[in-house]
Amino acid sequence: MTLTSRRSFLIAGSATAAAVLVPVAASGTATAAPKASGKTISVAAGETYELAATTQVSQLTIGTGGKIVAPTGYDISLTVDGVETGQLLTATGGTATLIQAGTYRGDVVLTVAESNDVTYQTLTFPFRQALYVGSDGVDSAKSVLSAVRGGKVTDAAARNVSITSTGECFNGVYVESGSYTLQGTAISLTGNGRSDFAGYGAAVVGDGSSTKLVVDGARVSNKGVVRTTVIADNGANVLVKDSFLRARNGVLPSDYQATVETPYMESVPWMLGLDGNVRATNLIGKNSIATYLNSTVFSETWGALSVEGGSGLKLTSINSHVGNTGDYGYGTYAIGDATVRVLGSRFDVGSYATIIAGPAAVVHYGDSTRDAVAALNTELALGLSNAELKSIPERNTVVNSGHFGYMFFGAGQLTLDGGTVINSERATFLNKGQQTTIKVDGSKGARLNPRDGIILQMIELDDPGPVPVNGKMMNVGVYTEPTTDPTKNSSFDVTAVHSNDGAATFSSIKLKGDFYNGMRNGKNMVLIFEGSSVEGVISATKAKHRVPSIDSSTFYELGIVTNTVQAAVNNGVVVQLNSGSTWTVTGTSYLTSLTLAADAAVKAPRGRTVKLTVDGTETAITAGSTYTGALTLTVA
């Protein structure tokens, strides 16, 4: 059957019955013609055949070294019984794919489609996709329609279609500079992708500032290296609602070398304390928006909801279940000036709820109140109706992490409020030498529950960084634990508050846990308590990793330290107990500044007493006072 228009067509029953495109004009000729008999094609070993138009046969045979290629300006894709298959990358780190030698039987369609080349930095990726949507709707000349099965496809929406791929680097749906809805779509991509910075090999891509893509009731299950489920790029606005997204790791090419150079990156930099080779989603480009509403989003490891590079990016999770099925991974990532909001969601993560990589990231975890969701509906232009808004239940956010709560790999702001509950095996906040603004408001029930009893841990950045190898930045560095004590920096004031300090404010909350500043070089821990109580140790410390060196084989040791409390060197501890606040000191604590409001108090656990020395002199603890210098609080 021939399509006479790019627009408003029906994909009915068997995919190939309605999915063969109008033959395109050929350019060039075959270097060797295939042997054709009836509905079969045979390409001999070592021969190359340039296929001029989309062709449907019952059997395709390609000998060793044989090739089927498309004319210049076109790309070729193979489907068998409606499944894209057979196509593999020609080289590790490359971009081109080739149909592999072998025999393919069934409903065999070779689609010759107009090229959709996408450039990312230094590389150009030859995208092939089942469904291409542009500003005028579906473009059949750029689509591999034999891979779209069932349902109905129009210029405005695709409903109840399925797309399956077992080849490499095949995209499901690519929407560029258009408005489109995917409803009830089922996509399964098995086999490696190539770049989740470009979206090469992703299930769904929204690209361009005029793109508004709604993914409603979808089920996407991918397995493969960087075989991402959903990507928003270059200013696109993508809303995923009532959907299920899952990405599982693939097998890296045997000659792949781990790198931080993004055009070639196919696995997570282990220096984040992670492993894995696929992120479930990615948000990239400038001013792109991705919102996940009432959806389930899981990666095996690496990350579930990622933000990578760009500027003005906005990532939101509302009433969604997000996490990792493996032992390592994050829920969200916040880099640059990204805004990340998590409302009414449940996070079950291997390593971190969020990695904050700064330098100006803003992250908020809170409740999905009616007012908050309505405000986001307006700000993000989600297009939710009043009925939809009313149907969204109000929930609090719960995080369950098998490692840390939040990791600061760069500067940023983090706010936790509403009824948010953070359960983590290790410290709630892990600050690797970064400027932070942490705000926790417990007035509506927010709680922090670190199983190891540490609420805030500050340490030096233990990322060894990439190493230049043959002109590329490779992930082969080794972190080595310092063996000497830090040298006092006489110009750094450990009693003052600096703009680049690690700061945290806790309001209207009851806290039980410790706070440690294990920095070596010029960064204070600044803690402000407003109408709150805290029970634990707050101190400068010597922080030491469990092992003397860490490389890619022991990545999981990053961030894990033991603490030996000691007087501050270049790691001041500034504590401010504002009105209505109480600190119950449970063990020896070394501070550099302590300020108490007129109704604040420092006390010891029942049956014990607390003593303060300032520069070695025992000093009474008096409400309304400020103490600076070498402060030591002991409990007897």
Percent of residues in helices comes to under 10%
Shape: elongated
Low-confidence region ranges: 1-33
Rg (CA only): 28 Å
Termini, distance in Å? 89 Å
Most strands sheet: 18 strands, mixed
**What is the average per-residue confidence, as pLDDT, rounded to a whole number?**
94
How many H/I helical runs?
A: 2
Approximate strand percentage: over 45%
Topology, number of strands: 63
Secondary-structure-based class equals: mainly beta
Model description:
The strands form eight sheets. The protein has an 18-stranded mixed sheet, with no helix packed on it. The relative contact order is 0.06. Residues 1-33 have low confidence and may be disordered. Strand 8 and strand 9 (97-99) form a beta hairpin. By secondary structure, it is an all-beta fold. It is elongated and about 95 Å long. The longest helix has 10 residues, at 370-379. The protein has two helices and 63 strands.
Give a quick summary of the entry.
By secondary structure, the protein is mainly β. It is built from two helices and 63 strands.
Protein topology:
Layout: E1 35-37, E2 40-43, E3 48-50, E4 55-62, E5 67-69, E6 74-80, E7 83-84, E8 87-89, E9 97-99, E10 102-114, E11 116-120, E12 123-134, E13 137-138, E14 148-149, E15 152-153, E16 157-159, E17 162-165, E18 170-176, E19 179-183, E20 186-190, E21 204-207, E22 212-216, E23 219-223, E24 230-233, E25 237-241, E26 244-248, E27 279-283, E28 289-293, E29 296-299, E30 303-307, E31 314-318, E32 321-324, E33 330-336, E34 339-343, E35 346-349, E36 352-359, E37 361-366, H1 370-379, H2 386-391, E38 398-401, E39 406-408, E40 412-416, E41 421-424, E42 429-432, E43 436-441, E44 447-450, E45 454-459, E46 467-469, E47 472-474, E48 479-480, E49 502-507, E50 510-512, E51 514-517, E52 525-530, E53 533-536, E54 538-545, E55 549-550, E56 561-565, E57 573-577, E58 582-585, E59 589-596, E60 601-603, E61 610-614, E62 617-619, E63 626-635
Parallel strand pairs: 2-4, 3-5, 7-17, 12-18, 16-19, 17-20, 18-21, 19-22, 20-23, 21-24, 22-25, 23-26, 24-27, 25-28, 26-29, 27-30, 28-31, 29-32, 30-33, 31-34, 32-35, 33-36, 34-37, 35-38, 36-39, 37-40, 38-41, 39-42, 40-43, 41-44, 42-45, 43-49, 45-51, 49-52, 50-53, 51-54, 52-57, 53-58, 57-59, 58-60
Antiparallel strand pairs: 1-2, 4-10, 6-7, 6-10, 8-9, 11-12, 12-13, 14-17, 15-16, 46-47, 48-55, 54-56, 59-63, 61-62, 61-63
